[in-house]
Design goal:
By secondary structure, the protein is α/β, with parallel strands linked by helices. The chain has one domain: Alpha/Beta hydrolase fold, catalytic domain (Rossmann fold). Helices cover 44% and strands 18% of the residues. It is built from eleven helices and eight strands. It has an eight-stranded mixed sheet with strand order 1-2-4-3-5-6-7-8, with helices on both faces. Helix 2 (80-88) links the parallel strand 3 (60-66) and strand 4 (92-96). Helix 3 (108-123) crosses helix 4 and helix 6 (179-185) crosses helix 7.
Length: 289
């Protein structure tokens, strides 16, 4: 009796495995998914990226996505649905990991993102991507990081590139665009969400703030600032918008009505999602599509 139950259990487990495999293949029909490319040249899960690519018929525009998680948690694998969705729309989607606090602190994770982007720029043509059409997107802490790398020349400069390789920037309810302001105006949230990653040295906070790198006369990629009703990110987004406006940088604003800080990212790719529609519209508008 026990042996029969064991055989039945094995068959059930095998059936589940086969179902999962078929489901993935169906979702990924005509798509290529490559996981865990170690962009820093060392086997490190925190310095790895996944690529979701459409069928190789010409070169496709690239979305480079950085996850959130207060610079302390999060993983690229949690964004598989985004990768599959955008690949089906004709984009090569790159989902990126980076080292996290408290094991590292600023500026290490910013340079990780820049190194990942330099790897993508130099190698994405091998995966059907167009290095001349790279668009950055990030959520929460990830929005802070992609903004920092896109506005601050020194990050990509370390890897022999400049910010002109970024052709567009999509910021999903980012926090930390102005870390000095966050530190002073939201002290409890700062201690909870930011301190482990950035400390409290004002010079460090200023250098780590994307707005400190928004300068008139510098290259500024077209930026879509998406925000929700969360008090911190709404105020921080407005400070970034003010600075972009002051230097004459190209930007657009989208208020994600009815979204939370979580769902503004999690719902991307779902039918009828307004944020998804806005992202696709923005990408088409800046690419001339």
């Amino acid at each position: 009796m026990k042996s029969s139950l064991l055989v039945l259990l094995v068959l059930i487990l095998l059936a589940g495995a086969v179902f999962s495999f078929v489901l993935i293949r169906k979702l990924s029909h005509s798509l290529q998914i490559i996981r865990n490319i170690y962009y820093a040249g060392v086997e490190d899960k925190y310095r790895a990226l996944d690529i979701y690519s459409p069928s190789c018929k010409g070169k496709h525009p690239v979305i480079f996505f950085v996850h959130g998680g207060a610079w302390t948690v999060g993983d690229k694998k949690d964004h598989t649905a985004k990768g599959l969705f955008f690949a089906k729309q004709g984009y090569v989607f790159v989902s990126v990991n980076y080292r996290l606090a408290p094991e590292v602190s600023y500026p290490d994770f910013a340079y990780d993102v820049a190194e990942a982007l330099s790897w993508v720029y130099n190698h994405i043509s091998d995966y059907c991507g167009d290095q001349n059409r790279i668009y950055l997107m990030g959520h929460s802490a990830g929005a802070h990081l992609v903004a920092l790398v896109s506005y601050g020349e020194k990050f990509l400069g370390k890897y022999g590139l400049d910010t002109s390789i970024v052709k567009g920037l999509i910021l999903l309810d980012g926090g930390g665009y102005d870390l000095v302001h966050v530190h002073d105006s939201f002290p409890v949230l700062y201690k909870t969400l930011f301190k482990r990653a950035f400390g409290e040295d004002e010079n460090v906070l200023r250098d780590a703030s994307p707005i400190a790198h928004v300068e008139e006369g510098s290259y500024m990629p077209p930026t879509l600032v998406i925000y929700t009703d969360w008090r911190l990110t709404k105020a921080d987004s407005q400070r970034l918008i003010n600075d972009l406006n002051e230097v004459g940088a190209p930007f657009e604003i989208f208020y994600a009505q009815g979204k939370t800080h979580d769902t503004v990212s999690r719902d991307i790719g779902k039918p009828g999602d307004a944020v998804t529609a806005e992202i696709l519209r923005f990408l088409e508008s800046i690419s001339g599509g």
